[in-house]
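Milestone M4 deliverable, item 7.
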Amino acid sequence: MLDRSIKIAPSILSADFANFGREIEAVEAQGADWIHVDVMDGHFVPNLTFGPAMCKAIRPHIKTVMDVHLMIAPVDPYIDAFAEAGADIITAHVEAGPHIHRTLQAIRGAGAKAGLALNPGTPAESAEYLLDMVDLICVMTVNPGFGGQKFIHSQIDKVNKLRAMIGDRPIHIEIDGGVDPATAPLVAGAGADVLVAGSAVFRGGSVADPAPYGANIRAIRAAAEEARKAA
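Output delivered:
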């Protein structure tokens, strides 16, 4: 059975870049369930972040789940490198290439769990014929490429559609973008169980003072769980 309890996955895009190892250890100690790594190529999205070498370097510091989100195109040539770097989950965008089914096969073939990401303009139906190939569907609730954007409310309907489409399949629904205590209940109530949060987790804290990380995580989790009970 898939664990559908609410999981908070802080995005290290909002952490102190000079201190990744200690930031990861701090945020996990404060209650993070997964660690989300946003990989951007400056081509598929207008920003440039990390590659497999960085993932390999931070892997020993991650005790939970290393959730690697590839906002890159093409994807296929890099799958093995990210798998070898220790990614537990590798998520590719349906929009990043013409052969997403093959990409998902390759991710699983490399030994990682396969995630499928959908941009805000991409309909839920694009995942319909891929459900037996995926372990996770990531709904982008902002346009990919930058942290700190505002949540796009139209995506709540997409989460509802995906939840109905998934049925009893063991697939996580992950939300990436604009998640905070105000928006977490909206997506959790619609059926999401993994919430990626960057600035909403790391705001106000530091490696020297990590307590705010824990307070932020607890606030997001509590808001999401309350909505889940009411749904």
